[in-house]
Specification:
mainly alpha
Length: 191
């Protein structure tokens, strides 16, 4: 039996889930701010781009921790959940690696971002379906993880083909789906 499962059965809060959940809140707020307010700084030619790259890596690491918090809360289990969460973590890890590569070569970073997007799309969607099937979360909250995954092909990918900063705006709004997920994780912890 996992420690978090034992704690949940006793009605105790898992402090790791709480800390990582709040990290996901911070990551989500940063994503919204970076995507909507600082979108013009996401251009490799912008003077603050190296700093933005460091911020992006930190933000992605918090996202990675947030997804681990969902795993640790044991809201979805089985092969579909394991495969989905594994792919999602892999995709986010590749995203973390791709960010600093942009400082050296966009030709190398581009395919890495593609692999990251595929891993996150498939993983978050599969894990979201597993959570939905498990029925642990109730109401609209049960769709929060699934929303983070399906948002990528439905909104982010089409926005890549629009001129201007639309892709960055789509990333900022994607942060709202992770904020919804973070709130769900934190609200479902025993009080």
């Amino acid at each position: 039996m996992v420690v978090s499962e034992t704690r949940a059965r006793r009605g105790l809060v898992d402090p790791v889930i709480v800390v990582l959940g709040w990290g996901l809140v911070l990551s989500s707020v940063a994503d919204v701010f970076i995507g909507l307010v600082l979108a013009n700084q996401e251009n490799p030619g912008a003077p603050w781009y190296p700093t933005m790259t460091v911020v992006n890596v930190a933000q992605h690491l918090l996202m990675l921790g947030g997804v681990y918090a969902v795993i640790r809360s044991r809201v979805g289990e089985g092969r579909l959940a394991r495969a989905g969460f594994s792919l999602a973590l892999f995709g986010i890890a590749v995203l973390c690696a791709a960010e600093p590569v942009t400082l050296l070569s966009m030709k190398v970073a581009g395919p890495l971002f593609g692999v990251a997007m595929l891993g996150m799309t498939a993983g978050l969607t599969m894990a979201g379906v597993a959570v939905l099937r498990a029925g642990t979360w109730q109401g609209a909250a049960r769709f929060s993880l699934l929303a983070t995954g399906v948002y990528i092909p439905l909104v982010m990918v089409p926005s890549m083909f629009l001129p201007g900063l639309w892709f960055h705006y789509a990333i900022g709004i994607w942060g709202l789906t992770f904020l919804w997920l973070a709130v769900t994780v934190l609200r479902t912890q025993p009080r």
